[in-house]
Request: fold
Amino acid sequence: MGTLLPSTSWLRFTFEFIKWLRKAAEQEEPNAQFELGYAYVSGDGVQKQIDEAVKWFRRSAEHGSPRGQGALGTAYANGDAGVRDLVEAYKWFLLAVAQNDAGAKEGLRNLAQRLSMEQILEAKKQADAFKPNRASTKAH
Reply:
C-alpha cells in the first residue's frame, strides 16, 4: 500500500477516514499506523486511548517509520508505554533522529541530560541492533 494518505495537519478525522486509515494500518502501512496512533492520542475521530495509540506507534516504529519511532520514544519517556523507560525512549529517539526526524532531536537532547553514560551506550547498542520489520505481518 503506498503513502498516498492525506496530510492530517489540516484534516479532521471522520468516521470514514478512520475506517480506511485502520484498514491501511492493519495491512502494515507504517504511515497509516502512525496516523492512527495520533488519532488515538488526540481523540480525533476515535475515543482517546493512550494504550491504543502506543500500540499503533509501536507497529509504525517497528516498521522503521521515524515519526512512529519518535512517538514511541515520547511514550516511553512519559511512561505512556506502560512503563517509563528512558533507555528505551533514547533508543527510539536515536533511530528517529538517524532518519532526520526533527521532533525526536529535542527528545534526545532532553534525555541525554538525564541518563548516565552507561545508559546512553546501552541505548546506542540497542539502536544499532534494531532491524525494521519490513515484512507485512498480521500477528502483532
